[in-house]
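Researcher: I'd like a candidate sequence for this fold, 148 residues long. If you have to choose between options at a position, lean toward the conservative one.
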């Protein structure tokens, strides 16, 4: 499971397929918008440079490589995150979180969580093996990492 801290970068990763939306626990975003509101959506889409739009002075153009014809797919991701309760926006409550360099954090199970649950322990160990394999081989350029 993953916790994200950037709407634009996390949604981009989900759109590009590098992160599965079902692996997302929550995204704590620095935004204050409703993806189902057309006006809000246009501001976000243009602000992040979606469809190669000019962008905003206040946002990074994280979506500039997403073609305009895929706008609805990106919006659907945002709506799905909202409807699943996976989009938390502290600005809606008066907070103003800072932009973080890293934006995905993995949620892990501690030994205390696993002590009395052998099925969870086996699943967790299998997940760690798969996660290590996923970070060892980069599909884009087949880089191998020998640091096991």
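Model: Candidate sequence:
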């Amino acid at each position: 499971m993953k916790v994200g801290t950037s709407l634009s970068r996390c949604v981009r990763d989900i759109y590009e397929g590098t992160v599965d939306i079902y692996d997302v626990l929550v995204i704590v975003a620095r935004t204050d918008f409703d993806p189902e509101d057309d006006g809000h959506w246009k501001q976000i889409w243009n602000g992040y440079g979606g469809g190669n739009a000019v962008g905003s002075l206040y946002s990074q153009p994280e979506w500039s490589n997403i073609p305009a014809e895929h706008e609805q797919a990106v919006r659907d991701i945002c709506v799905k995150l909202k409807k699943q309760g996976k989009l938390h926006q502290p600005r809606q409550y008066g907070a103003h979180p800072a932009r973080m360099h890293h934006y995905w954090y993995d949620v892990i199970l501690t030994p205390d969580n696993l002590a009395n649950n052998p099925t969870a322990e086996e699943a967790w160990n299998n997940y760690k093996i798969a996660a290590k394999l996923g970070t060892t081989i980069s599909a884009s350029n087949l880089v191998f990492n020998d640091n096991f």
